[in-house]
Amino acid sequence: MDLTPFQSWFRERLLDRFIRYVRFDTVSDRHNPVYPSTPGQRVFATALREECEALGGIDVTLDEHCYLFAVLPASADSRSVPPLGLIAHLDTSSDAPGKNVSPQVHERYTGGKIALNNGVVLDPAEFPDLQRYIGQTVITSDGTTLLGADDKAGVAEIMTVLEFFLCHPEFSHGRIEVVFTPDEETGRGMNRFPREKFTADFCLTLDGSGDGDIEAECFTAYELSVTAAGRAIHLGEARGKLVNAVELAAALVTLLPKEESPQTTDGRDGYYAPIEIKGDIEQASLDILIRDFSERECRRRITAVRETARTLEKLYPGAALTVTSRRQYGNMKSFLGKNWRKRLALLRRAVRNAGGEPVETSIRGGTDGARLSEMGVPTPNLFTGGYNYHSRREWAALPAMVRAVMTVLYVADEWRRI
């Protein structure tokens, strides 16, 4: 298989799709227990279903929880090939504004600073990966929102893979099973996943970042919910009587070790991340994310938060703090199976065939693939060509997006013979 002659077609199709997709408002809402948590995700999923139907040759369904399944049947000569799965997510993060995205296409990027609205600047001194794409196409938002490459770059790439195989039946392939999931950013993306519909025993998530990245390890993740119960009384009569729940929650945050926070850690170090605090004198709530590559270290941090809560109860007589934990996902490395080294070699060859350099790295985060790996389907994560996720400074490199499509196509081609 030689995909070099098709690079111009890939660029055209990817850019068109990506620009259309990022304009859908699919910001998810971690506070809403409904699936999907926001209506825009279903609007986007419906548009994708209609696009699959228009392409023809794809069996596509959209279920009540907003999981979109698209199956490309195997070529006649490849029906005995085990299915290959591909996954990306529909939603975007709520960490930065995500409504009314206005994508900006910077053709023939010159290598300098990219100035956007609201004083937002992409400076190659701060983001050196920009220098890799001088003279090529880079896409940003207008600075008022995030871009949405996480994960609409992955969605666009998977859709382009499907379209390519449909347009070029001369390239044989096995059965390809695609799933677009809701609410990945809330940590609930696989909670209602109908596993029985998915027959692939190997899958790829397209939800990575840097050009050539292959990610086969991720954080183990927990979310802690802390409830602080105080005792209200008129502030003029509060001496010796008032127990302020807001103060309790704030004190707990203050006591978390600053050297174990997201902004002070990198590499393989985990962290505590307080992400929301709200309430009043009588009751306050605090949400804390716990992340580490080690299950043991996660449990150590959970225990430390519980012990800190007990300490505060002693310091503030009449106070009550409860800490509940919810496991979100585990480190996928533990679930990749005995064939992983062979499959890793396949992925490395595919990246090189696509003109890239494979980089094996660990995710300081998680993917739906981590959950699917725990369900028995090893699902490493591939790059999409997006950078600076969850930020107004998010950007995507079109050449890397093309390379991601080519990588998946080369994987599918070799998968027939593995």
Notes on the protein architecture:
With 418 residues, the chain is an alpha+beta fold. It has 2 domains: 4-218 and 331-415, 3-Layer(aba) Sandwich (Aminopeptidase); 220-329, Alpha-Beta Plaits. Helix content is 29%, strand content 22%. An 8-stranded mixed β-sheet has the order 1-2-8-3-9-16-10-15, sandwiched between helices. It has a 4-stranded antiparallel β-sheet with strand order 4-7-18-17. Strands 12-13-11-14 form a 4-stranded antiparallel β-sheet. The two termini are 15 Å apart.
Show the helix and strand layout.
Layout: H1 7-22, H2 39-55, E1 59-62, E2 68-72, E3 84-89, E4 104-106, E5 114-115, E6 121-122, E7 138-140, H3 149-167, E8 176-181, E9 203-206, E10 213-218, E11 220-229, H4 245-255, E12 271-279, E13 283-292, H5 295-315, E14 320-329, H6 340-353, E15 359-363, H7 368-374, E16 381-382, E17 386-387, E18 395-397, H8 398-415
Parallel strand pairs: 3-8, 3-9, 9-16, 10-15
Antiparallel strand pairs: 1-2, 2-8, 4-7, 5-6, 7-18, 10-16, 11-13, 11-14, 12-13, 17-18
Helix pairs in contact: 1-3, 1-8, 3-8, 4-5, 6-8
